[in-house]
Structure formats: C-alpha cells, structure tokens
Design brief:
By secondary structure, this protein is an alpha+beta fold. The chain contains 13 helices and 28 strands. The strands form five sheets. Strands 15, 16, 17, 18, 19, 20 and 22 form a seven-stranded antiparallel beta sheet that branches.
C-alpha cells in the first residue's frame, strides 16, 4: 500500500499537534499527582541530610588479639587434630595438649559511626558508643568528604555506652561541620526522625522513620543507666554511634542497639537521648572518665500486692531490701524495707528511675529522700559518694542480703506448703552477705522475727528493724524448725 506525500504531510501535522499537546500536559499531570505535603516532606528530608551528613563520621577501630593456638599430639596419618566439640567429645573434655603451643595474632576490626560535636583549635571531638571503640589499639576517623584521620580515645563510659574520640583536623579544621545538638526532652512519639551512619559498611547512609516509644529500658548492657528512644528507622550494625535527628537537623539521640531475631533491622532501633549523652562530655575532656553518684543499696520494684502489705498507696517508687555496710545509705539511716518515693522533690517511678537519678547526682551533694517505713513517711538526707569499683563493692558486707516474699497461692503450691503455714519465704540470698554467712537459704519459711509472728512483708520489716543491734529469725526448712541470730 502506497502513501501519497499529501497524506503523509497531514499525518505528520496531526502527530506534531498531538506531541505538543502531550508535552504541554505532562508537567501539569505530574504536578497534580503529588500532594504538596509530600513534596514539602521530601524537601525537609533533603535539607536535613545536607545539613547533618557533613557532621557524621565513620569510626574504624582495630584491635590486635594475642591467643594461644591449640596444639594436640600427632598420630600417624593425623598430623593436626582440630579443637572441635566432636574431637573433645570423643577423647574426653580433659584431653591434655602436649608440646609447645604456638601463639597467634589476630587483627579484629570494628566499624561504627560518630558525630562531631565540639572543637578546640584544630582538635575535633567525636561522640560515639563505647562498644564501637572498646579495646581499640588504633582508631581511624573518616569524614564525609573521604579525608581520614587518626583518632584517640579521650574518655569512655561503659555504663552509658558512650565514648569521646578526638582527632587533629589540621588543614581541614576550617571545613569541619559540627552537629547541632537538640533537646531530647521535646521529642514526642510520632515525630519524624532520620538515622544517619554507616550500616554494614555502607558509609553515610540516611534512613527515616518515626519515634515509636520513649523511656525504653533494657538492651545488651545490663548495667546501663540509660532510657532509650525507640524508632522504626532502619538501623543495622555500623549505625552504632551515629545520629538520630529531627526534621530541624538537630541530633536528638545516639543510635546504639537494635532488637532483632536474625541480626538485621526489623524496625526496633534504640538511641540514647542526646540530653543523657551530653552529661559526660565535659568530664571526658577534663578527667577521661565519668564519676557516678552512689547510694550503696540493693533496689528492686514491688508488685501491687507487696506494696499494699507494706502499707503503701501504690507501687510507684523503689524498694530497698538490703544495704552495704559503710555506704551513704547506711550513714543516712536508711533501713532494709524502706521504700523511696522521691529524691530532691522529683518523684521516683521505679528502680531504673532511682538508679539513674542517683547516678546523675554530683558527688558530695546532700540529697533529700522521701521514703515510707512501716506506714509512715520519713525524710532522710543522704550525702552522695562516688560509685565504688565493682571489685570493692563485692567485698563490702551486705545487710541483710536476702529477699523475702509473701506466701500467696502460687508460692504455697510451688513449695507444697500447708494452709496452716504462715510467714514469708526467702526468695534469694546474696552470696557472702550477712544472711548467707548466717546460713539462710532460698525457700526457708520465716515465721518469727525477734520473737514476733509475721504474716507478710510489712510485719517482717517492722520487727526486723525493731532491734538495731541484733535480729533473731525463726524459720522452717523442709519441715524442721530452726533459728539464727544476725547482727548488722
């Protein structure tokens, strides 16, 4: 089929008109399909990324581990026996190595993130997590522009999982961009946040999400004093020490850990609030470490039933079952069984709240404690001391060093106690405590204290503290009645 020139000209003209109309219409269609609110949000994300990325760094730590390589006897045809569970199962767990044992050296690298927060001349300070640089022999700081510097640890704080690292920026000093630190007390659930760091070695990655919850406790550090900001912004290994920022480009948290069943992000990330992270910075620079306040007592939370037995209106506060000898608590007259409800006028919600409040108090400060004892509110003034080293605390005598619980239906069933048995049950005895040395054991049923029958926690502590010099306990162990005396 042939096409005439005139027909082709008409067809081309029509096609040109159609194309022109499409070109003119395309921008209008694209514009109308995207809500302005989304464009504004996109612009906000872009602006935050541009502002914060230059203040985030990559932290590469290197440790050298020296260890002895296993060496086993040689048998014909088997010159090198492996140190495997199967091998030890076959030959027995006490199979002895023979001959010289060669030493091996292994270099271990750890990758994390950090934020530049302060400078002094050409010295730049980077805030990161303690676990990112713990045990490092060398530290390398990489800026967003690719420049690398040797880092030095200024100070570490294992309890808060924070560390401060410095480097000499030299000729780059004028180009350093410091992060703007926000106020984490203003953060609310539902706020947009961006997480910036180096997840899985993918440097300077930006992810987004919201604040999922506030005041979370827990995590891999059992001694942690932190409460955490929870976010669903994707965080992975390598993000540790990086920035969690709001839409104003302010750092509101230090990304620290994730909860995950498989090692990858499942939307459960946790960041140290920046207000808590600010606390140790000056101490790092001045002393290289952080000094925490210390009360010198064991503390625990109470259930509602136990709180009622102690004559409390509710269980908001922190219970003190035992006290260290010579501690600030003992010097102030705090006794086992006391229940702390406020410190310096600030309400104490639970044990974590008390531990954090005490830790933040300056050493030497006199703190006012409101507490309940035997149904009455008391005020005690405690002079806060520096937290003792764990090795020293372990050697201090603990009074009395036991936890007791009421006998409810569950306890009665577990211990197979008859209905006629009354008293309180020893739930736990602390090793090397006064109670441990005296011979008390878990599951002992204490029915008398200083000659008085006891039926619940309130009565137990009332009579326990009635004689400041000696406590006599009558208890039942496996059907046998026994008694002991203890002195503080």
């Amino acid at each position: 089929m042939r096409t005439t020139f005139r027909g082709l000209k008409k067809a081309l003209s029509a096609l040109m008109l159609l194309s022109a109309s499409l070109v003119l219409a395309a921008p209008v269609a694209a514009q109308s399909s995207i809500p302005q609110s989304l464009i504004d949000l996109q612009d906000a994300f872009r602006n935050v990324a541009k502002r914060v990325l230059p203040s985030v760094v990559e932290v590469l730590s290197t440790s050298v581990i020296h260890q002895t390589a296993p060496q086993f006897p040689n048998f014909p045809g088997f010159p090198n026996f492996p140190n495997t569970p199967e091998f030890r199962y076959f030959f027995g767990p006490n199979f002895q190595q023979q001959g010289p044992q060669p030493k091996t050296t292994e270099k271990v690298e750890g990758l994390g993130s950090g934020i530049m927060i302060r400078e002094n001349g050409s010295t730049v300070y980077v805030l990161t997590n303690n676990h990112v640089v713990h045990g490092a022999q060398t530290i390398q700081i990489t800026l967003n522009n690719g420049r690398k510097f040797e880092g030095k640890i200024v100070g570490t704080d294992p309890r808060r999982d924070l560390a401060l690292v410095s480097f000499d920026a030299k000729s780059e000093a004028s180009k350093i961009v410091l992060a703007q630190l926000g106020n984490s007390n203003d953060v609310q659930v539902g706020d947009w946040v961006l997480a910036i760091g180096n997840p899985l070695g993918l440097d300077f990655t930006v992810t987004h999400g919201i604040v999922s919850a506030l005041g979370r406790h827990g995590g891999p550090n059992k001694d942690s004093m932190d409460t955490y900001i929870q976010t669903d912004a994707p965080i992975n290994r390598g993000n540790s020490g990086g920035a969690l920022v709001n839409l104003e480009g302010q750092v509101i948290g230090i990304n620290t850990w994730i909860a995950t069943p498989n090692g990858a992000s499942v939307g459960l990330g946790f960041a140290i609030p920046i207000n808590e992270a600010k606390v140790p910075i000056d101490e790092f620079i001045a002393h290289g470490k952080v000094t925490y306040g210390w009360l010198g007592a064991l503390v625990s939370n109470l259930g509602e039933t136990a709180a009622r037995e102690l004559g409390l209106a509710n269980n908001k506060g922190s219970f003190i079952p035992s006290i260290f000898e010579g501690s600030p608590a003992q010097k102030a007259g705090i006794l086992p069984g006391d229940f702390v409800t406020s410190i310096n006028g600030a309400a104490i919600k639970n044990t974590d709240d008390l531990v954090q409040t005490i830790g933040d108090l300056p050493v030497g400060q006199q703190a006012t404690f409101k507490l309940w004892r035997d149904g009455k509110e008391l005020t005690k003034t405690v002079t806060i001391e520096a937290r003792a080293k764990e090795s020293l605390v372990d050697k201090m005598r603990l009074w009395p060093g036991l936890d007791v619980v009421n006998i409810d239906d569950t306890v009665r069933s577990q211990l197979d106690l008859k209905k006629s048995v009354q008293g309180v049950v020893v739930a736990q005895v602390e090793p090397n405590s006064t109670a441990d040395v005296a011979g008390l054991k878990a599951d002992d049923v204490i029915d008398k204290v200083n000659g008085h029958l006891v039926h619940n926690l309130g009565e137990f502590y009332r009579w326990f503290n009635s004689n400041p010099n000696e406590v006599n306990l009558s208890f039942v162990r496996q059907g046998v009645h026994l008694s002991i005396g203890m002195s503080p």
